[in-house]
Specification:
Blueprint lengths: L2 H25 L4 H19 L5 H18 L3 H29 L1
Helix pairs in contact: 1-2, 2-3, 3-4
Length: about 110
C-alpha cells in the first residue's frame, strides 16, 4: 500500500473499532475492545487480502494473536488453540508472500 492508502485503512480500522465498541458492550460481549478489534481487523484484513495487498498478512497475524490471548484469558482453550493455528497460518502465509515477492524482484 502507498503511504496514503495505509493511513486511510489504518484510520478506518481505528474509527470503526472505537465506534463499534459501545455496540458490542450493549450486546454483552465478554471483552468489548478485543472483540471489536477482532471483528474490524478481520474485515479490513480480508478486504486487503482480496485486493492482494501485502499488509493483510501482518494484520491477520495481529488479529489472530489478540484472539489467542483473549480466548486463553477467558479459559476458552479450544478456541485459543484454534486462533494459535490461525497465527501459524498467517506467519506461514506472510513468509511465503515475502519469498514470492523477493523472487519476482530479482
Amino acid at each position: 500500500l502507498a503511504r496514503k492508502e495505509l493511513m486511510i485503512w489504518s484510520a478506518l480500522l481505528l474509527v470503526a473499532w472505537v465506534a463499534l465498541r459501545p455496540v458490542f458492550e450493549s450486546w454483552g460481549a465478554a471483552a468489548t475492545w478485543a472483540d471489536t478489534f477482532m471483528l474490524v481487523g478481520s474485515i479490513v484484513a480480508q478486504i486487503l487480502m482480496v485486493l492482494e495487498k501485502y499488509e493483510s498478512w501482518p494484520l491477520w497475524l495481529i488479529v489472530d494473536l489478540v484472539g489467542t490471548v483473549e480466548y486463553a484469558a477467558l479459559d476458552l482453550w479450544f478456541t485459543a488453540v484454534l486462533y494459535a493455528v490461525f497465527v501459524a497460518i498467517a506467519a506461514i502465509g506472510w513468509k511465503a508472500w515475502l519469498r514470492r515477492a523477493n523472487a519476482q524482484h530479482i
